[in-house]
What we know:
Layout: H1 5-30, H2 36-53, H3 60-80, H4 87-105
Helix pairs in contact: 1-2, 1-4, 2-3, 3-4
Amino acid sequence: METLTPVYLRLLKANFEHLVQCFTEQESLTGQTGLLLRLRAEDILSNSLSQALSTPEVTNENLQWVQEAVTTYLRFYPENITSSNLATLDDEIDMILHRIMEIAEHLE
């Protein structure tokens, strides 16, 4: 396992937190509630990422769990993207997703 793995996991966590904030803002501005993409991102934060980061050393099992969760999320995202017609917010969400994809590549 690469020595930078914990760094990549913390970067993933920060980006998923930012993504949740953007989706929360999108819900607030558009009046939508319970966006599936926000809920799933929160699930990844509270389960696979928090578990992987809860110990000083990342286990292969925890790393695999994170990889599967993030890969599934990234496959699921394009099918469920909802344009909020708020260009700046939509662009920010898209940028975060691309960053998450780049970080996830380092975990493989």
